[in-house]
Design brief:
The complex is a heterodimer of chains A (about 300) and B (about 475). Chain A has about 300 residues and is an all-alpha fold. Chain A has 2 domains: about 110 residues, Orthogonal Bundle (Cytochrome Bc1 Complex, Chain D, domain 2), CATH 1.10.760; about 110 residues, Cytochrome c-like domain (Cytochrome Bc1 Complex, Chain D, domain 2, Orthogonal Bundle), CATH 1.10.760. Chain A has 10 helices and 2 strands; from the N terminus they run H-E-E-H-H-H-H-H-H-H-H-H. Chain A has a two-stranded antiparallel ribbon with strand order 1-2. The termini of chain A are far apart. Chain B is mainly beta and about 475 residues long. Chain B has one domain: Porin (Beta Barrel), CATH 2.40.160. Chain B has 6 helices and 22 strands. In chain B, the strands form 3 sheets. A 16-stranded antiparallel β-barrel of chain B has the order 3-6-7-8-9-10-11-12-13-16-17-18-19-20-21-22. In chain B, strand 4 and strand 5 form a beta hairpin. The chains are: A mainly alpha (about 300), B mainly beta (about 475). Chains A and B meet through helix 1, helix 2 and helix 4 of A and helix 2, helix 5 and strand 4 of B.
């Protein structure tokens, strides 16, 4: 009888406490004023190769892994968001940095799928490569429920990335000239250290301060936000980084120009060993002047000519 | 006790009422006085991730949490070095467990008018676990550490874990080196066990010793002193570790053998099984030698003088199986073997000079003595309703396959134990961990009652708060 009494005591106390906790937890989830926003679980899908992701299957993982930062409503206002820099992505506006599609368009499912597995360096977004492919596809589908754009628009067409031409000292020199001409140095700084004259004034599309990338910190294993290959850098020029001041240059430069710019930017990663630095070393660390028929803009007086030559 | 039983029936309504009233009073006291926690668990605070990102149910790691641990408590996102943290960041977490539990131990030897008899002893009441101070993280990018001073319920402290680790040596995740006192690389971690009762709060497989065996050194569940080389693939699908350990069961100060070492080797491979999830299969081997011969002074053993090393081994397979997002099960098998010397009671003469024997020169084993061997299996299924609520169960059994002394009953010391329970986290944030824990365990062992050598059954009912901040 004592045993039964103990079980009864445990059961009663357990139930009472559980009920109390549930009520308390429910109360915590409610907003301070006004009605609680409702999230409609739309039957969104994603398609990654032969895998089809379903939003309903991504809900549990989103709540477990993502909601703390991106928020239960996908608005980037999870309980940790206030502590994070840069801020978590707001899925309700469906603006994404890492895309293979032109600026202003929605990314492909594969773009989002790859971003989840790659993570975003220099941010709190981890490398979620522990998920199965199906889990990632389900999460991509779930992300789509937060914005009506996914119902009204189709993803943009992926840009074509032409084969990379050989790295030559001439291509590096041309890239350096483009770096000046396109005024990349205004944000990224003359030596690519992220300390250009405009660097301190930059904000993203939600008015949060944002810093330009510091190429000089790059090492052999360093990553860019949207990948670590030359192809990834090429894509950034052509697609832009939506939601940030980094524009798309797709309408401004030709593919070969973009590759030359890629080759030059790699030389700004002074701690990285690559074919670009080998070519530069063979030229004794000096980037020769690039002769352009069109007049080049003048660099600011208090800044030396941008570039990694001689560094 | 007898008086209570006699008056139990007539007092039952009053007792039920008082129990109910006490329950409500406690509930309102707790819920009314508690505020949302403002202190911060160390890693979640550093990275801004909810507990559920790394824990299937705190403190048990999920796959992502295992990868985080394997990377040296780093997300590998270029913000792992402490220079990125606010100078006020203090990587410390406190954990303590206040509980109510009822323990019923069968066939305890008690004095009576006719000498000793065996009786069941049952006791219940409010209780407290010890206090753990977890502090860990990175000293610099790819230099990690963990220090865990842990106390018992009387606030007597010891160092449960003290280790530093070089991560991603030569830039490769395949080479990480750890030195100090640390938990062995068990895929099913006992230090992150979800259960709290006396017998259910450990994995019996990790501590099993045959009856009369003197080898305390082969306990996989105890943190050990040594050096570990560990490596893993970028996504942690493939992982291995090799540890060289002092055969002293993690006791500091070289209290046992003068030169006795063990090794722990494990490897595993995970597979992507589509909608089922990531499945993992692996193996482990713990093998080594420990002393049986001790120098004495006035009959008392001298610490650190142990020689006469004899061998032992524990080996088995581990499987972690997921069946979708809600159901998973972990299976661990074990085949164990001790030297016949240990089986005959030689071994830990230091801690128990009256219970165990000293293998002095000229000692011979009784005729027919054999290596004691056994086999065991552990199955632990979970139903994860959501990150805040998990139901768990465990079945564990260990069967002797060979007793050291011929003629000993074959099932002496066999263990079977069942555990069921649930943990409910009323909130899930990156700031603190709090679980309402309820658990019931039944433990059965063959032939080990002190007087009649019959089977012993023990049960424990436990509920309480498990929290850290």
């Amino acid at each position: 009888m004592r045993f039964i009494g103990a079980i009864l005591f445990a059961a009663i106390l357990g139930l009472v406490l559980a009920a109390g906790f549930i009520a308390r937890a429910s109360a915590q989830e409610a907003p301070e004023v006004g009605p609680q926003p409702r999230l409609v679980l739309k039957p969104m899908e994603s398609h990654i190769g032969n895998i089809t992701g379903h939003a309903a299957d991504g809900k549990s993982d989103y709540r477990r892994y993502c909601a703390g930062c991106h928020g239960d409503l996908g608005d980037g206002n999870g309980e940790n968001a206030v502590w994070l820099d840069p801020k978590p992505r707001d899925f309700t506006i469906a603006t994404f940095k890492c895309r293979s599609t032109l600026t202003g368009t929605l990314p492909t499912d594969e773009d989002l799928y790859n971003t989840i597995a790659r993570g975003l360096t220099n941010s709190n977004m981890p490398i979620w490569n522990t998920f199965t492919r199906q889990q990632r596809a389900d999460l991509v589908a779930y992300i789509k429920i937060f914005s009506p754009r996914w119902e009204k628009e189709k993803a943009g067409d992926p840009i074509k990335v032409p084969a990379e031409p050989p790295v030559t000292i001439e291509s590096i020199a041309h890239g350096k000239a483009l770096f000046t001409k396109l005024e990349c140095w205004k944000c990224h700084g003359p030596a690519g250290k992220g300390d250009g004259p405009s660097a301190g004034t930059l904000t993203d599309s939600k008015d949060n301060p944002i810093r330009p990338y510091n190429f000089a910190l790059g090492k052999d294993d360093s990553r860019f936000k949207c990948g670590n290959t030359n192809q990834d850098i090429y894509k950034i020029f052509m697609t832009g980084v939506d939601g940030t001041p980094m524009p798309s240059f797709a309408d401004v430069i030709q593919p070969n120009d973009a590759w030359d710019l890629v080759h030059f930017l790699r030389t700004l990663q002074v701690n990285r060993h690559g074919k670009e630095t080998e070519v530069l070393s063979a030229a004794h660390g000096v980037i020769p002047p690039y002769v352009d028929k069109s007049p080049a803009p003048v660099a600011p007086a208090d800044n030396k000519s941008p570039g990694g030559g001689g560094q | 006790m007898r008086m209570w039983a006699q008056s139990h029936l007539c007092q039952k309504p009053q007792r039920a009422t008082s129990v109910l009233a006490a329950a409500f009073a406690l509930t309102f006291l707790i819920l009314g006085s508690s505020q949302p926690a403002s202190a911060l668990p160390a890693f979640a605070r550093k990275y801004g991730l909810r507990c559920s990102a790394c824990h299937e149910s705190w403190p048990m790691l999920n796959y992502f949490g295992q990868k985080f641990k394997d990377n040296g408590y780093q997300l590998m996102n270029d913000r792992d070095a402490p220079i990125w943290q606010n100078p006020g960041y203090w990587p410390v977490t406190f954990r303590i467990v206040p509980i109510w539990h009822r323990v019923s131990q069968g066939k305890q030897a008690v004095d009576s008018g006719d000498g000793q008899v065996e009786r069941r002893i049952t006791s219940s009441g409010f209780d407290l676990s010890g206090l753990d101070f977890h502090t860990g993280g990175t000293l610099e990018k790819n230099f990690s550490f963990y220090v865990l001073p842990s106390s018992d319920a009387t606030a007597s402290f010891h160092f449960e874990t003290v280790m530093a680790r070089l991560d991603n040596v030569v830039g490769s995740p395949w080479l990480n080196v750890k030195l100090g006192k640390f938990e062995l690389d068990n895929l099913l971690s006992e230090k992150r066990i979800l259960t709290l009762t006396g017998n259910g709060g450990i994995y019996q497989l990790y501590h099993f010793m045959p009856q009369g065996d003197g080898n305390v050194f082969g306990q996989m569940g105890d943190n050990q002193l040594g050096v570990e080389v560990m490596g893993h693939s970028y996504n942690d699908r493939t992982r291995y570790s090799v540890a060289l350990l002092s055969s002293n069961d993690g006791q500091v100060g070289l209290p046992y053998g003068s030169e006795s070492y063990s090794t722990f080797i494990t490897a595993s491979q995970a597979f992507d099984a589509g909608k089922l999830g990531v499945q993992r299969l692996g193996f482990y081997v713990m093998a080594g030698e420990a002393p049986t011969t001790w120098l004495t002074n006035g009959g008392a053993p001298i610490a650190g003088s142990g020689t006469g090393n004899k061998g032992y081994s524990r080996e088995g397979f581990v499987g972690q199986f997921y069946f979708g997002q809600h159901v998973d099960a972990t299976v661990v098998t074990q085949h164990g073997s001790d030297s016949a010397w240990f089986g005959q009671g030689y071994g830990d003469f230091i801690d128990n000079p009256t219970g165990f024997k000293n293998n002095t020169p000229g000692t011979t084993l009784p005729a027919g003595s054999r290596n004691p061997t056994w086999n065991g299996v552990l199955v632990e299924p979970h139903y994860v309703y959501n990150p805040q609520l998990i139901f768990l169960a465990r079945y564990e059994t260990i069967r002797m396959s060979q007793q050291s002394t011929p003629g000993t009953r074959s099932d002496l010391g066999n263990i079977t134990t069942y555990t069921v329970g649930y943990r409910y986290n009323p909130f899930m944030t990156s700031r603190a961990g709090f679980a309402w824990h309820n658990e019931f365990n039944i433990f059965h062992q063959d032939g080990t009652s002190p007087l009649t050598q019959t089977n012993v059954n023990t049960s424990e009912l436990l509920m309480g708060f498990d929290f850290d901040f």
